[in-house]
Amino acid sequence: MPQLRDSGNTGSAFSLRDDEKQHGFARIFGIETEYGVSVTGSNKPCDAATVAMAMFRPVVSRSRSTNTYLSNGARLYLDVGSHPEYATAEARDPLTALAQDLAGERLMRQLALDAQRRLSLECGEGTTVHLFKNNVDSAGHSFGCHENYLVRRFVSLHDVERALLPFLITRQIFSGAGRLSERGLVISQRADYLDESISSATTRERPMVNTRDEPHADPERYRRLHVIIGDSNRSQHAGLMKLATTHLVLCVIEQAARRGVSSGLEACALKDPSSANRAVSRDLQFSGTPLELADAQGFAKAQAEYGEMNSAAAGGGKPCAQAVDALGMQRHYAAVVARFLEDYGTQVREAMPRLDIEAVMREWNDALDRLGTGDFAALENRVDWIAKQSLFEALRRRHPGMPAARFAQLDLDYHDVANGTAYDSLVRHGAMRTIITPSQVHEAMVHAPQDTRAALRGALVSKALQCDARFSCDWTRLTLGTSGQDGERAEAVLIDPFETQPGDDYRRLMSRLGA
Asked: Which of 107, 132, 266, 476 is the residue whose CA sits 20 to 30 A from 486?
């Protein structure tokens, strides 16, 4: 287990009091999605790097860089390994974050099809660009979908490892994207590629949660929880539930830390998180694969306190104090969150009025009940890995003896946002649930969320592009490269992600642009 190191303030009285007065259970969400690219049907060599650069040609023409920010507040860039990446603007609720992620998906599709039109002139009419919103390519290389959650600084990394990581490991049963591996279908795309539980590394070794301390906010108050364990979802429902349930679990952990009491989740800690992560991913039949606990007796006491039985007891066997399966772990989290909402539900709802918490809890418990009874068919319109499993089974029934390569092709086609047909066909036939409308996706492509600092960033980027002015951004800083009368570059700092009102420095920037 790597040594955990906290930096900054881990819980001063000022931070606790100030946070409760200001934002309570409010949060900032963000999703970073790396896409895989490939090309088929070309008459001459055309590798991923060529495709990626063709995609970014109009971006470079406009922004003079492959790393830029957009008028909707998002970041678009070309990552290491020729992976186009889209990082959503800051969102204050999971629905907005989901819409922003889908806006990135549509933008990437447009870039890919534009590149395809140009490459077909150079490489032949049959040139087809494939853009995969998944996490593993055909050669076995893994790339990520990273979730970001603004978390209060007084929550320690030790709390994250003990109380949150088991949830992240077991939530894959309803949020996994599914992947055909050498052993057949597995639930999670990422599980086989993650080496450690918590670490500051990102490429040398892949942790489930990255601890690099870049809060993009006041470091005395916040940390940015950078979650690497999750899959890239095509299912909108899975994407929403992944964010919403994680938010609710974080609310429990934060309030416990704020009050200096037990969250009811500490005993969920696992002895070997990496092994548990892989075990959950490979157990498609939910056969009760045990996850070894670090504090078995403590977990048994926690279950008793929340009125639960573990999976062995539910099946008529003796309660198991040494281990719990993924369903049992998720049921415990759901029970703890339900108890928490009895006391703090009003405050949680007030902090995030767009999120229907009752619906989230119903869907969460319904998914666990369906999985527990083996009613997978009821979830195939919501859960990516189950939708894939259903597609594979239908293909086997229609074409017995179908070669493995055809299934691998279908697996990739499901994630191809440029030229894939499998997922879009499910949506057209009402076999996949959608939440965000096409018009809402278009709105998210054009406009930044208006309830975070992204609104200020987006407005400046939009005006700078109109004026053809040189500008640069990061998440907390805006800079105009044009010189004022004083001969200096002008900049504004946006340290508070919740702030939407412009300060004097920001007004000066916009004034230089004629706004």
From this structure: 476
Q: Which residues lie below 8 Å from residue 197, measured CB to CB, with a gap of 6+?
A: 1, 2, 161, 165, 207, 208, 209, 273, 274
Taking phi first (over 0 means left), then psi (-120 to 50 degrees means alpha), and beta for anything else, what does residue 184 get? Answer: left
* 3-state SS assignment for residue 390: helix
Strand order across the beta sheet in which 29-34 lies: 67-69, 75-79, 83-87, 29-34, 145-152, 222-227, 207-210, 196-199
Residue 272 annotated to the active site: no
**Per-residue model confidence (pLDDT) at position 11:** 43
First CA to last CA distance, the chain:
53
DSSP state of 473: E
Tens-digit pLDDT profile for residues 120-176: 999 999 999 999 999 998 777 889 899 999 999 999 989 999 999 999 999 999 999
Question: What mean pLDDT, rounded, does the chain reach?
Answer: 90
CA dihedral for 130, 134, 138, 141, sign (positive or negative) = positive
Worst-scoring range by mean pLDDT, 37-46, 108-117, 425-434? 37-46
Residue 488 burial by CB count (10 A; 0-12/13-18/19+): exposed, middle or buried?
A: exposed
Is the model more confident about 82 or about 293? 293
DSSP 304-332: HHTT---HHHHTTS---SSEE-HHHHHHH
Mean pLDDT calculated for residue range 389-398: 96
Where b means 16+ CB within 10 Å and e means fewer, 189-203 reads bbbbbbeebbbeeee
Catalytic residue among 19, 47, 79, 159: 79
The domain locations on the chain are 377-433, 453-512
Whole-angstrom distance, CA of residue 354 vs CA of residue 92: 9
Do the Cβ atoms of 257 and 159 come closer than 8 Å?
Answer: yes
CA distance 468 to 511: 15
Task: Yes or no: say if 287 and 255 are a contact pair by the CB < 8 Å rule.
Answer: no
Instruction: Give how far Cα 142 sits from Cα of 191, 231, 254, Å.
Output: 10, 11, 32
Locate 247 and state its tokens: 């938010």
Helices assigned H by DSSP within 47-90? 48-55, 57-63
pLDDT in tens, 351-386: 999 999 999 999 999 999 999 999 999 999 999 999
**At 254, phi and psi to the nearest 5?**
-65, -45
Q: What's the CA gap between 254 and 252, in Å, rounded? A: 6
